[in-house]
Amino acid sequence: MAKGSSKVSDDECSSSSDDDNDLSPNELRSILEDYQGVIKKYKSKFKSLECDHTKLKTSHDELLVRHNEVVETHESCVVSSKQLREEHDNLLVKYNDLLVKHDEVVVLNKSLDSSNKKLKLDYANLNSKYQELEFAYDVDDELEIAKTKIIKVNASTSCEDLAESSHSTTSHQASPCSSKTNLDRENQLT
Questions:
Q1: What pLDDT was estimated at residue 143?
Q2: Keywords assigned by UniProt (predicted)?
């Protein structure tokens, strides 16, 4: 019988069961050795597959743990994303409000600028009018002083006052009798 052959011919079937036991011990040992070799190969393959299975199971467990972590991270990111979206929407509303206020401030600023320019022009006009009035007041004061001097000279009753004023044009010294009246007159005019 050939190695690994499981077919039995018709002639062999007709022979008795004694024929099946007719294998020689060498043939039997050879068959046993062949089967032991096959069994060893399958055992080594089994051990190798068992080791691979253990590695794959460990990898699977690690990947499952990582997957669960990723799922948790994803869920927290979704929650965080919703919160960020709400904050973004709130900030967008605030931004739009600030844009409206900015536009109002720009309009107000332009109005204030034009008012400021108008006030500067008004100030310049008023300042020039003030300077004109001040100049006119100074001229008026000088005329008043000149009139006062003329009145003092014309109003003096003493001949000595006239005589002294004609001799000294810069200083007005009055006689002792008229000094009181001249001083009183100056106080009254000022």
A1: 74
A2: Coiled coil
Tell me, yes or no, whether 136 lies in a domain: no
Per the CB < 8 A criterion, the answer to whether 189 and 155 are in contact is no
The verdict on residue 70 lying in a domain is: yes
CA 141 – CA 134 distance, rounded (Å) = 10
Residue with tokens 């062949």: 34
Query: By residue range, what is the domain housing residue 36?
Result: 25-130
Q: Classify residue 107: in a domain, yes or no.
A: yes
CB 153 within 8 A of CB 163: no
Task: Label residues 142-158 b or e (16+ Cβ within 10 Å = b).
Answer: eeeeeeeeeebeeebee
172, 151 Cβ separation under 8 angstroms: no
Say how many domains are in the chain: 1
Backbone angles phi, psi at 102, to 5 degrees: -60, -45
| pLDDT for residue 99 | 94
Residues of the chain with pLDDT under 50: 1-18, 155, 161-179
